[in-house]
Design a protein that fits this description.
The complex is a heterodimer of chains A (559) and B (597). With 559 residues, chain A is of the alpha+beta class. Chain A is built from eleven helices and 21 strands. Chain A has a five-stranded mixed beta sheet. In chain A, strands 9-8-12-13 form a four-stranded antiparallel beta sheet, covered by helices on one side. The longest helix of chain A is centred in the N-terminal third of the chain and has 56 residues. Chain A is elongated and about 165 Å long. Chain A starts with a helix and ends in a 7-residue tail after the last helix. Chain B is α+β, with helices and mostly antiparallel strands and 597 residues long. The longest helix of chain B has 63 residues. Classes of the chains: A alpha+beta (559), B alpha+beta (597). At the A-B interface, helix 1, helix 2 and strand 3 of A face helix 2, helix 3, helix 9, helix 10 and helix 11 of B.
């Protein structure tokens, strides 16, 4: 075939250009280490690479999420471990307090320790994580989980009601903790003081704090009779707008017992028609309306982020109910059901203080008289002064004399008709005349002048009354329940931590697989590429040499 | 006498042959040059008694080696090669743009959603929120950068088109000029001898023309050629070259249409340009550039709609309802008015609210839409497939100034608007006239316009504020079955942030079949596949072109060895003829000498 000089030269150039571009391509592959450099090199592979990259970053993010959640759960675990220790120490103390007859100061010493333990528990419940978030406060993480309520003197749960969840896999969300309410408050209780009702349903729950407080109270001879209480079940921390611009006015009525004339009742009609910017302002307004007319027999109060209504009467007489006033949303907004009522639990008992010893007469108070006070619930008291020498050979005579001497000093005193000395019981029993919430007996030796008498009959100064044993025993039972409850919570945390570890392993495996696939798609096989490079280099050189040789051939060289 | 005469004729013809050979040698590197050769004719012999005596030789013609068939084939091949080469060249640039992992949209999307997860992990942490704001800024910048680079390509394309049209126009004029010269040159020789070099030049111009655009050629009897576009639009007609021009398209001033201007008409020929570099450019615009930009816009618009919906349903760190997170400025969806509109209606198009128009983001489409008014009814036409949706106008209540109406599908379902809401003024002085049309581009430049409106990290709505029963963990519902919303800050609530972070896993686009990353992958695979195909086609066409060119070169190209041999041959014949003259002189001298004696 005939070939033109120009074309033969161009063919050489085309061949060289082609070889050179192939060489450059391999060089590019070698210098980047990639076999897919541009999407057009392998469109399907490029898309797979992008998809794999997305999956990898996503899975790595899940790992980061887990790493965020883990320290929080570990902090929670530590806090709960601490709470368990506190409960166990309290159990020891309670058993101690239940066993031997103890002096007031012994009991007070125990009480002080219980108080300290309570404070420690509050501290644990309000544990914060490294970001300063309260770990038991749920979604209201900038609020302490438990705050002291100065009206009810209780520790209320004031955190949020939702536990934050974290995404640890595409379809897997795990809570990064537990809300304090479920850890410390929502504990079964056998106590009469167990949180009364929610919408009329007895829930029989008492918070760990309330248990410790009741225990401390019993140890210091301060008892609380339950009041009838209605608690709303709605989260209303931020108030409600009942102004005309908001939801509009709302009304409802509260009915409580009338302690002055049972079984009559007192009903208060409440109307709310302004913008309340906080729950406290709602409570204040309701209390203002209740207090506007005597007698005041009930009260609205806060329980953390909930509202509750209590009868001021204590004990079995106590009752309260709520009814819709016909307009507005109050009942729904605050979680009340119209027509529900609550009566306090509790058996009315006569308070009594029982001495612990039969009397090993003779007693001689003639040289150093014994003086002590008997105090009733309302603070009225009688001072008893014993000066005789009870040394009659007959035990019965001595006992009768002692009883009649004390009874004589009660009769006509401020506590006459409130407290009496049981004349037949031995050991001595001081008992309240009227049963119920206001029944209380307290024997006090403020001036330390009755020590000999107290020692003789086995009384403890400052101690009173009706159901120390029961309160303490209940507290002991509740502590046991609480301990079990905490163990369960801790088991839940352990399960979550295990789930995290499993998921991390799974994610790591998954990422490894993805990265392997990704590398297969995009990374260069260097051995193969280098051998290709060498071959291509040879081809290129051949093309160059061929060009130089062929272009040198011309007939003009010979003429 | 005939000895001298035929020697001189040999001398002259050898000289012409040598001249032609050296002309060939001189033009060895001239593109499109066809080698020429001298055609000799033996003179008529003189009759003598002894028979016919040869009288020497005459140069009859100088012809060029060429084949119109090969020329035609080469032009066709050049058209196809020009198209795929230009297409591949432009597409490779987009391909390179997507190849850089640092500029891709998918990594920015991943980082952004990871930062949302960061907020979900720690919703009360201001640093985590700040990171999310920064990441969204980066995502928006990334979308802008990509959009702007695609815009730059569009500008470049427009410039290229104009330059190319300039080349075409000068080629057309030159061909027309050559036509005149060739016709007159042929006339001089009564059509016997051709002006070879002019013909070569014209063939070369035609080849260059066909590289730019596919042409048909008609050879005229007088030697001129007429050049036509695919469907018979004349570019060169005898001695007249027509000029190409550009004009803005009916709707979009940035989209150039190609016109062919004749003295009495201006014809839009964009659609009949089928081959050549120009078709490569136009096809690149329609197949690569526009879809990439619209799909990019689809990601931006879809993301903004979904994200804003969830964000606006949530609550921020101060307990206030979430604001819009992404924004598109004052004009959400650009509406372009036809130049031909006679009405005065103003059309406003916004992305629809997914709370009202459920699943709106899924219906977002990368196609443009044309809103048409026929005097009584409105209809929305999807430009990609010309499918049409009948619309019904409902007056906006309370009345606006000027009065306006919303346009919604007449039968809904099955018809839905593509994730947009359309509002048109209907008041006197602001109303549409029959035949008015408006171009609606929901996705076209959304990637360039998307922006984050949030600047305060506290305003990120990570919380849903839905009240939860602490014991069961279930949402608390009000009497109407709707969740109860807590009216205040819930700093530890991350539920909305989780919903937002989950968007990355969800197929919310393309009627619930594609996630954002899917669309981003789609752009990569579209561009990658098209570029790959174009590169392969370019290689194949190059081989074909080179083959044809080789054939042509083998026929018409100058081979220096051949010319060297010819030089020797003609030199020898020249020397021989000269020798014959010298011999005739010797003969003459012998004769004179004989007479002198």
């Amino acid at each position: 075939m005939r070939i033109s000089t120009n074309w033969s030269q161009q063919l050489g150039v085309i061949a060289m250009t082609d070889q050179h571009s192939k060489l450059t391509r391999i060089q590019e592959e070698l210098s980047t280490g990639l076999k897919v450099i541009r999407p057009s090199d392998d469109p399907i592979g490029s898309v797979r690479m992008a998809d794999l990259q997305v999956s990898i970053t996503k899975t790595e993010q899940y790992d980061r999420n887990i790493n965020m959640a883990k320290p929080r759960l570990e902090a929670e675990e530590t806090a709960i471990q601490g709470a368990e220790d506190i409960i166990m120490r309290t159990q020891d103390l309670t058993l101690q307090a239940l066993n031997a007859p103890m002096s007031t100061s012994d009991r007070l010493a125990i009480k002080f320790e219980v108080d300290e333990l309570l404070q420690e528990l509050v501290g644990l419940a309000n544990t914060r994580d490294s970001n300063g978030e309260y770990i038991f406060s749920g979604d209201l993480s900038d609020n302490p989980a438990y705050t002291y309520n100065s009206v009810t003197h209780e520790y209320d749960y004031s955190g949020g009601f939702d536990q934050r969840k974290l995404q640890i896999a595409t379809d897997r969300k795990i809570p990064d903790g537990d809300i304090g309410f479920n850890v410390f408050s929502n504990i079964d209780s056998v106590s009469q003081e167990a949180e009364a009702t929610v919408n009329g349903t007895e829930i029989g729950k008492r918070s760990l704090f309330a248990t410790l407080q009741a225990l401390a109270g019993a140890l210091s001879s301060s008892f609380k009779q339950p009041n009838a209480t209605l608690t709303g079940d709605r989260f209303v921390k931020y108030g409600m707008d009942y102004s005309a611009a908001g939801k509009g006015a709302t009304s409802f009525s509260l009915t409580s017992d009338n302690p002055a004339a049972p079984p009559a009742t007192i009903t208060e009609n409440i109307t709310l028609n302004t913008n309340f910017d906080s729950l406290q302002s709602v409570v204040d307004e309701i209390n203002t309306q209740i207090n506007s007319a005597a007698p005041i027999t009930m009260r609205a109060q806060l329980n953390g982020n909930q509202i509750e209504f209590v009868s001021l009467t204590e004990g079995a007489q106590s009752s309260i109910s709520i009814a819709n006033g016909g307009s507005g949303d109050f009942m729904a907004d605050f979680g009340f059901v119209s027509g529900t009522n609550d009566s306090a639990l509790g058996v009315d008992v006569n308070a009594s203080v029982t001495a612990s010893k039969q009397h090993p007469f003779p007693f001689d108070y003639s040289t150093s008289p014994a003086t002590f006070d008997i105090v009733a619930d309302d603070g009225s008291f009688a001072t008893i002064n014993l000066t005789a020498n009870y040394n009659d050979p007959s035990y019965a005579v001595n006992f009768a004399n002692l009883v009649s001497d004390i009874q004589a000093q009660i009769t006509g005193s401020a506590i006459d008709g409130k407290i009496q000395l049981n004349s037949t019981e031995d050991p001595l029993v001081f008992e309240g005349v009227v049963p119920g919430g206001s029944s209380s007996v307290q024997i006090k030796d403020d001036l330390n002048q009755g020590a000999s008498f107290f020692d003789n009959v086995g009384l403890v100064s400052g101690v009173l009354n009706r159901d120390y044993e029961q309160v303490t025993q209940n507290a002991l039972d509740d502590l046991g329940t609480a301990l079990e409850h905490l163990v369960q919570v801790k088991a839940g945390i352990g399960a979550k931590l295990n789930a995290f570890d499993d998921q991390v392993l799974l994610n790591e495996k998954f990422v490894l697989d993805l990265k392997t696939t990704l590398s297969e798609v995009k990374d260069l096989d260097f051995t193969e590429a280098i051998s290709r490079f060498n071959m291509q280099q040879a081809s290129f050189q051949a093309a160059q040499q061929a060009y130089a040789k062929v272009q040198g051939l011309t007939l003009f060289n010979f003429i | 006498m005939s000895l001298l005469g035929s020697s001189i004729s040999g001398l002259i013809s050898s000289q012409v042959a040598l001249e032609t050979t050296s002309h060939n040698i001189a033009n060895v590197n001239k593109e499109g040059y066809s080698r020429q050769r001298v055609e000799l004719g033996t003179r008529l012999p003189e009759y003598t008694g002894g028979g016919y005596v040869g009288q020497g030789v005459d140069v009859e013609n100088i012809t060029r080696s060429h084949s119109e068939f090969l020329n035609e084939q080469l032009r066709d091949s050049a058209s196809v090669l020009g198209e795929v080469k230009q297409y591949s060249f432009m597409a490779s640039q987009i391909d390179d743009l997507l190849a850089d992992p640092d500029t891709g949209v998918a990594p920015a999307l991943s980082s952004f959603f990871n930062s949302v997860s960061g907020v979900a992990n720690d919703p009360s942490s201001t640093p985590a929120r700040q990171v999310m704001l920064t990441e969204s800024e980066i995502l928006v910048q990334r979308l802008h950068t990509m959009g702007e680079r695609l815009d730059t390509k569009r500008d470049q394309l427009n410039t290229d088109l104009k330059v190319m049209l300039g080349d075409l126009n000068s080629a057309a004029t030159a061909i027309a000029d050559l036509n005149v010269k060739i016709v007159s040159a042929l006339g001089k020789s009564s059509g016997e001898q051709q002006p070879n070099d002019l013909m070569d030049e014209r063939d070369q111009l035609l080849l260059e023309l066909s590289e730019k655009v596919d042409i048909n050629i008609l050879q005229q009897a007088d030697g001129s050629v007429s050049v036509f576009l695919g469907q018979g639009q004349a570019i060169v007609l005898n001695a007249v070259g027509y000029t190409f021009g550009t004009q803005a398209s009916e709707f979009d001033p940035n989209r150039l249409e190609i016109t062919l201007d004749s003295p009495n008409s201006k014809q839009v020929v964009t659609s009949v340009i089928t081959g050549g570099e120009m078709a490569g450019l136009l096809r690149f615009r329609d197949e690569v550039l526009d879809p990439a930009q619209k799909k990019l816009g689809l990601i931006a618009a879809g993301l903004a709609m979904d994200f804003n919906q969830i964000h606006q349903n949530g609550y921020d760190l101060d307990g206030a309802a979430g604001e819009r997170y992404f924004d598109f400025g004052t004009v959400e969806v650009p509406v372009l008015y036809s130049r031909l509109n006679t009405g005065t209606a103003q059309v406003t198009v916004t992305y629809s609210d997914p709370d009202v128009d459920i699943g709106a983001a899924g219906r977002l489409d990368f196609s443009d839409y044309t809103l048409e008014f026929d005097g009584a009814n409105y209809s929305l036409i999807r430009n990609a497939d010309k499918s049409s949706i009948a619309l019904t106008a409902t007056a906006v209540v309370p009345a606006t100034v000027p009065a306006s109406a919303t346009l919604a599908p007449t039968t809904s379902p099955p018809d839905y608007l593509p994730g947009i809401a359309i509002n048109i003024t209907t008041d006197v002085g602001f109303s549409a006239a029959a035949g008015d049309s408006f171009l609606v581009r929901p996705s076209f430049d959304a990637a360039n316009k998307i922006d984050t409106t949030l600047v305060d990290a506290r305003k990120i709505a990570a919380a849903t504020n839905v009240e939860v029963d602490p014991v069961t963990g279930q949402d608390v519902l009000d009497g109407g079955g709707n969740p109860v919303i807590i009216n205040g800050p819930m700093p530890g609530d991350n539920r909305n942030a989780i919903l937002l972070a989950n968007l990355v896993n969800q197929s919310t686009l393309s009627n619930g079949t594609s996630s954002y990353a899917d669309i981003s992958s789609e752009i990569i695979s579209d561009v990658g596949t098209l570029t790959h195909a174009a590169k392969v086609a370019t290689k194949a066409q190059e081989v074909l072109f080179n083959h044809t060119k080789g054939e042509k070169e083998s026929l018409t190209g100058v081979n220096l060895d051949e010319e060297a041999a010819n030089l020797i041959k003609f030199q020898q014949s020249y020397q021989a003829a000269a020798q014959a003259i010298s011999i005739s002189s010797t003969i003459f001298d012998a004769l004179i000498g004989a007479v002198r004696r």
